[in-house]
Specification:
The complex is a heterodimer.
Chain A lengths: L3 E4 L2 E5 L4 E7 L5 E7 L6 E6 L5 E4 L2 E5 L5 E6 L8 E8 L9 E2 L3 E6 L1
Chain B lengths: L3 E4 L2 E4 L5 E7 L5 E8 L3 E10 L2 E4 L6 E3 L9 E3 L8 E8 L8 E2 L3 E5 L1
Parallel strand pairs in B: 2-11
Antiparallel strand pairs in B: 1-3, 3-8, 4-5, 4-9, 5-6, 7-8, 9-10, 9-11
The chains are: A mainly beta, B mainly beta.
């Protein structure tokens, strides 16, 4: 079955440093989504990438979808303490498989002030 | 809008007991899912539904039952609780109309002793 692997599992950074998490799928994805979960909270949607090679930015966050639509990355520039949380990628194998999103294991980011 | 509502928020069960986690959404989404979250394992799909009357298994369905008699409700039943089912459970809903963005409930913390 479809598998989504995410690395690293944990990342500790000093405030102001950059952060990147990587996501790889065993199969080609129709789209990939990114979510953020604050400690004790529930995952919250950040963004969806659909096109091969797509790059999207949200302020200090840059999201990329690989050319083969099997990998993705999230890069945060100059981290802040508000960036603390776990970041998940989630892949959809087929567009008509709504509800069957498969999540990576997540990357837990801690930021030291 | 209430979004996705889960109850109860916290529950302690004895091994062998059964219970139902309730989930309701008011966004008229056709897709609904149940995930469990365990440390280091990310979010794993238990069961999902693509519409009323239709359910299917996810990655970790054993020990759980679901039904979808209405668009709004998607209860998760633990048939005979085991300590391995101690976890945080998230209900989610989505729609192709919303680009398959998943909206999560706030979670149910379940402990089986």
């Amino acid at each position: 079955g479809q598998q989504v692997m995410q690395i690293p599992q944990y990342q500790h950074v000093q405030e102001g440093e950059d952060f990147t998490t990587y996501c790889n799928s065993s199969t080609t994805l129709s789209n990939i989504q990114w979510y953020k979960q604050r400690p004790g909270g529930h995952p919250v949607f950040l963004i969806q990438l659909v096109k091969s090679g797509e790059v999207k930015k949200q302020k200090r966050l840059t999201f990329q979808f690989g050319e083969a639509k099997k990998n993705s990355s999230l890069h945060i520039t100059a981290t802040q303490t508000t960036d603390v949380g776990t970041y998940f990628c989630a892949g959809l194998g087929s567009y008509n498989q709504g509800g069957k999103l498969i999540f990576g294991q997540g990357t837990e980011l801690s930021v030291k002030p | 809008n209430a979004g996705v509502t889960q109850t109860p928020k916290f529950q302690v069960l004895k091994t062998g007991q059964s219970m139902t986690l309730q989930c309701a959404q008011d966004m008229n989404h056709e897709y609904m899912s149940w995930y469990r979250q365990d440390p280091g394992m990310g979010l794993r799909l238990i069961h999902y539904s693509v519409g009323a009357g239709i359910t299917d298994q996810g990655e970790v369905p054993n020990g759980y039952n679901v039904s979808r008699s209405t668009t709004e409700d998607f209860p998760l039943r633990l048939l005979s609780a085991a300590p391995s089912q101690t976890s945080v459970y998230f209900c989610a809903s989505s729609s192709t109309g919303s680009g398959n963005t998943i909206y999560f409930g706030e979670g149910s913390w379940l402990t089986v002793v």
